[in-house]
Specification:
Blueprint lengths: L18 E5 L5 H15 L6 E3 L8 H14 L4 E6 L5 H13 L4 E5 L19 H15 L3 E4 L7 E4 L6 E6 L10 H14 L3 E4 L5 H13 L6 E2 L1 E2 L5 H11 L5 H9 L3 H21 L5 E4 L5 H10 L5 H10 L1
Parallel strand pairs: 1-2, 1-11, 2-3, 3-4, 4-7, 7-8, 8-9, 10-11
Antiparallel strand pairs: 5-6
The structure holds flavin-adenine dinucleotide.
Flavin-adenine dinucleotide (FAD) binds next to strand 3, strand 4 and helix 5.
């Protein structure tokens, strides 16, 4: 299945690599208002999907759902829900997946999530031990919910005929080009990705990385091991040195020295942002040249830097094209 939306075009109306974005749910009313505006701006770039993160242990469930519903009701973008299963019983995970499907969400990023620190003797993992089990559960819940599809008969009001069972649009999973912080060998991450594909994943999205070769080498290893699903590179334009340091801490991926120095010594915030955008655009160009099937951009809930990356790559969407598209919808 395709990783992306249909026929995306650049400023000149030429076909362009599909792009997608990641957001996190807002933590206040003011942030929610600002996020609505960010989503509207991101939607103009005609992304294949916009994904919304899920707080550890389901802490952001309602806020994540609100953002996903906003996209369903106010944009033409396919919203993708991150879901984590750590600490859940089978029944709780089943209920969670059903709730999101009932809300109209059909694209998911299935994650195991991180066990809480100081968890009990079972490690706080819960009934589902890995993301692969959640992938399987998403498909199972969808099948139980809708064992077969129905389609209206044109010209015959009220009549319908049976068609193939509907499947979730996308069931994505995480991939770790520079290794999961807890994995013992590079092969373990490739094996985990293969297991997720066999369980029914249709797309992989990578953790941040800073060198095109990290991504390209990982894709090569994954292909040699038999992984066939598209592997979307996850890229974030980082525009402050504090954020760069925090990301290194969170992901366990060491920050690139040249960007760290540029951000550290440059006093002007606008010039700092330019460094971050230029670095990300360069990285994006490298992975696209190596065959990446698109770009997944981490937004940090701001549109300026990610749209700046697309503009630098020459694959931003023109205002005229956006207006034409909106009129046609
Ligand atoms: P899994 O794929 O189940 O496993 C992770 C790693 O553990 C594997 O790569 C492998 O090295 C090892 N492993 C797995 N199974 C086995 C096995 N059977 N034997 C040996 N080793 C094994 N977290 C959140 O809480 N909310 C989010 O919204 C969120 N979004 C994310 C989005 C992306 C794109 C990425 C890359 C990560 C995200 N995370 C999020 C973080 C993620 O939950 C953590 O990295 C978590 O530790 C692992 O989740 P996973 O789905 O990769 O787990």
């Amino acid at each position: 299945m395709a990783a992306t939306g249909s026929d995306p075009r650049d400023v000149l109306g030429r076909p362009r690599p599909p792009v997608s974005f990641e957001l996190f749910p807002p933590r206040s009313d003011a942030a929610a208002l600002a996020l609505g505006r960010t989503i509207d701006r991101l939607a103009e770039a005609d992304p294949a999907f916009i994904s919304v993160t899920f707080g550890a242990g389901g802490s952001s469930r309602d806020r994540s759902l609100t953002v996903l519903r906003y996209m369903l009701e106010h944009t033409a973008v396919d919203p993708m829900a991150h879901l984590t299963c750590v600490g859940s019983s089978h029944q709780e995970a089943n209920r969670l997946v059903r709730e999101f499907l009932d809300a109209g969400v059909t694209s998911f990023l299935a994650l195991r999530g991180d066990p809480p620190t100081g968890a009990g003797p079972d490690g706080g993992i819960g009934d589902l031990g890995s993301a692969a089990e959640l992938v399987q559960l998403i498909h199972r819940v969808q099948e139980e919910r809708e064992p077969f599809g129905q389609i209206g008969v044109p010209g015959v009001p009220g009549a319908s005929r049976i068609r193939e069972r509907p499947r979730p649009e996308r069931v994505a999973v995480a991939a770790f080009p520079t290794g999961h912080p807890r994995s013992r060998t590079a092969n373990q991450d490739v094996d985990a990705l293969l297991a997720k594909e066999i369980a029914g994943a249709t797309l992989a999205i990578t953790q941040l990385f800073w060198h095109a070769d990290d991504y390209l080498g990982y894709v090569e290893r994954a292909r040699s091991a038999g992984v066939t699903i598209p592997i979307l590179p996850g890229i974030m334009p980082v525009t402050t040195s504090a954020r760069l340091a925090r990301l290194a801490e969170l992901t366990g991926v060491e920050a690139p020295a040249e960007l760290a120095i540029d951000l550290e010594i440059e006093p002007d915030p606008e010039a700092q942002a330019e460094f971050g955008v230029a670095f990300a655009a360069n990285l994006a160009a490298g992975v696209l040249a190596g065959g990446a099937p698109g770009l997944h951009l981490y937004t940090f809930n701001r549109h300026e830097a990610v749209l700046g990356v697309l503009a630098r790559l020459g694959i931003g969407v023109s205002t005229q094209l956006v207006n034409e598209r909106n009129t046609a919808r």
